Amino acid sequence: MHSEIITAKLGLATALCNRHAVHMALTLILAILVIPTFRVDAQSPATEQEAVHNHAKEIAAIFERTKVASSAKDYSEIIDSIDDAMNWQGLSNNNRQYLHSLKAWAHDLRGWKRSEFVEFFRAANNQPQVELAVEQSFADFAIASELDPNRWQIWMHRGMLNAMISEWEKAIQDFSAVVERDEKNLNAYFNRAECLYQVGKYADALANYNHVLKISPSDLQAITGRAHALLQLGQLDQALEDYHVVVKLKSDDPWSHANRGDVHMQLGDWSSAYNDYNNALEVKQEPDVYRRMAWLLATCPDEEYYRPQAAIELARKAIEAAGETSPRLDVLAACLASAGYFEDAREVQQQAVALADRENEGQLQRMALYEKDEAYLQSIKR
Known about the structure:
Layout: H1 12-18, H2 56-66, H3 72-85, H4 93-123, H5 127-147, H6 152-164, H7 168-181, H8 186-198, H9 202-215, H10 220-232, H11 236-249, H12 254-266, H13 270-283, H14 287-299, H15 308-322, H16 326-338, H17 342-355, H18 361-371
Helix pairs in contact: 2-3, 2-4, 3-4, 4-5, 4-6, 5-6, 6-7, 7-8, 8-9, 9-10, 10-11, 11-12, 12-13, 13-14, 14-15, 14-16, 15-16, 16-17, 17-18
C-alpha cells in the first residue's frame, strides 16, 4: 500500500482531534493507504475534592493551575508542584491519593502535548526530534497509567500516538483498553475500526463501524469507513449505498465522488464512474483523481470510454502534480500500453514495480502482458 496524505488527513496530529477525514478505497490498481481520522474526547483533571484535611489551601492552588494549563511546560510545572507536595509533612492519605490522580492527569496531558510535535518535526525532516518526542510521550503515558490505570484517556492518547507512527496493532490494543474501561466510548470503537482497516482486518473493522452506527446512525465518518470496509470485503452494492449517502452529505468533497466512482468502476458502470470522477475534478483537481480517471480511460472495455491518449495526459498530470509513486507509474504504464507504446510501458512498469513497498501481483501480471505487447483491460468485479 502507498501512503497519500489526504487530509493532512491533515498532519495526523491535527486530524486526530478534529475528526475530519477523507478516505480512499484500496483496490488493486488504485491501491493507497487510507490515513485514518481519530477522535479524542474533551477532558478535565480529577474532580476537585472538598478539602477538609491539612494543606487544603496549597492543594487547591495546584488544582486551580490545572484549569489554565495548556502546554507541556504548564503540565511539567504542575508535576513538579505535586512532587513537592508529596513531601509535605502530615499529608493525609486522601490528599495523597488525590495528588496521585492529579499527577496521572498531568503526565497524560503532557504526553499528548509532546506527541503533537511528532508531525511538526516529521514535516521538518528532523528524525532525531521525532524519535525524542515519541520517546518522551510514551514515558509520560507509562507513568500516568501506573498512577491511575483506570484513566481511559491515557490509553486513548497512547493509541493515537501509536497510530501516528503507524504502529497499528499496538494502537488497536490501546483502543481496546479504552473500551474495557469505558464500553460506551464510541470514539474508541471508531478509532479501533480505523486501525483494523489499516492492517487489513476488514471484517473486524466493519463490526466496529457498525457498532458506532447502531448508536449514532448519522455518523458520516463511520458511514464512510463502513463503505471502505464493505468495498474491501467485496460487498459492492452495500458499499455503494453508503457512498451515495456520503456524496449526498459531502458533495463539496472530491473524494466523496471519487470513492463512489471506484465502486461504479468495479461494478462495470463506466458511465457513472466517469461522471463521478468528472464531478470530483470539478470540485478540486486532485492528482490522484486524475490518476483514477486515467485508469478508467486506459483500461475500460467500453469503446465509448476507451481513450488512451487522453489517459496518458491525465496520468502525466498526476505525476507532474504529486510526483512519481508506484500506483501513478503503474497507471501511466497501462495508459502507454493501451496506446500501443509497449516499450515505454515496460520501462515505466519496471519503475512502478521497483518503487512498490511490497510485491504487487497485479503489477507483475500487467508487466507480463506488456512483454507480449498486449494492453490490460478491466473486467467487472461483480
